[in-house]
Amino acid sequence: MKSLAVRRHDRRAPIVLLALALVATGGLYAVLAAPSRADAAPLPGQADTTTGQKLFEANCATCHGMGAVGTAIAPSLVGVGAAAVDFQVGTGRMPMTVSGPQAQAKPVQFTQTQISQLAAYVASLGPGPQIPTADMVDPSKGDPATGMAVFRTNCAMCHNAVGAGGSLTEGKFAPNLWHTTPTHIYEAMLTGPQSMPVFNDANITPQEKRDVIAFIKQQGGTQPGGLDLGALGPVSEGLWAWVVGLGLLIGAAVWIGAKSS
Amino acid sequence: MSTTNPTAPTGKAAAATADWLDQRTGVGVAVKGLARKLFPEHWSFMLGEIALYSFITLLISGTFLTMFFVPSADEVTYTGPWTALQGTTMSAAFASTLKLSFEVRGGLLMRQVHHWAALIFLAAIVTHMMRVFFTGAFRKPREINWVIGFVLLTLGLAAGFSGYSLPDDVLSGNGLRITDGLIRGIPIIGTYLSYFVFGGQFPGTAIIPRLFTVHVLLVPGLILALVGLHLALVFLQKHTQFPGSGRTNGNVVGYPLFPVYTAKAGGFFFVVFGVIALMAATMQINPVWNYGPYDPAPVSAGAQPDWYMLFLEGALRLMPGQAEVVFGSYTVPFNVLIPGLVVPLLLLGPLAVYPFVEAYATGDKREHHLLDRPRNAPFRTAYGMSILAEFFVLVLAGSNDLIATHFHLSLNDITWTLRFAFFIVPGIVFVLTRRVCLALQRKDREVVLHGHESGRIVRFASGEYVEVHTPLDEHERWIRVQHEPVRPIRIAPAEDSRGVRRPHYRSDVRRQRLSRLFFETRVEPVTPAEYAAAQEHRAIATGPGDAGHEQIVAGTGDHASRS
Question: HSE of A201 in the Cβ direction (CA atoms, 13 Å)?
Answer without folding.
Answer: 7
